[in-house]
Amino acid sequence: MKLVLTMLLVGGLVACSSPPPVSYYQLSAPPPVLNPDQRQMPQYSLHLQPVMVANYLNGAGLVMQRSEVELVIASRHLWADALDQQMYRLLAEQLQARMPALQLSPVSIAADIRLQLTVDRFHAQDDGMAVITGFYTLISGDKRASHSFSYRQPLTADGYPAMVSALSKGWQQLVDDLIAQLSQQHL
Length: 187
Description:
Shape: elongated
CATH topology: Rossmann fold
Largest sheet: 9 strands, mixed
CATH superfamily: ABC-type transport auxiliary lipoprotein component
Strand content: 25-35%
Radius of gyration: 22 Å
Helix content: 25-40%
Number of domains: 1
Oligomer: single chain
CATH architecture: 3-Layer(aba) Sandwich
Order of helices and strands: HEEEEEHEEEEH
Number of strands: 9
Mean pLDDT: 87
Number of helices: 3
């Protein structure tokens, strides 16, 4: 009897000591919809420079702001792909689908317009809000226009999946605003 009880106790301790699984997340976006009537030959080129993110966002862990001065980086809730690469990919997909007059150019010298995007904050706060801040610069010839952005998106539930969903919605707001700004450049 003691042996069975000891084995159950040891088995319970071993089960409790195993680390929780690692979860991976990616930003989501609605699929870009292109009206077939909008298809046309590209008239302008855009060099989309790599998205720059603050150093604390360079790691794989999702970030939670616990207080005004404390940021916690998760060790078991990770981005499936580098955050800056996810942001770049989603932005490029939306630009190509929603702005048919625009062609993304891999070379900045040949581009009519350059877009530099920097993200300073991309995390959730303990007040239940996801926060995205930063700035972008549009450069066309000798013209340069810089714009800052700040988005707050409420989390609909507790947990990392809700956090990533709120960050995705905030990111989509930024993409929509960028496309509107580029459209004002007569593209």
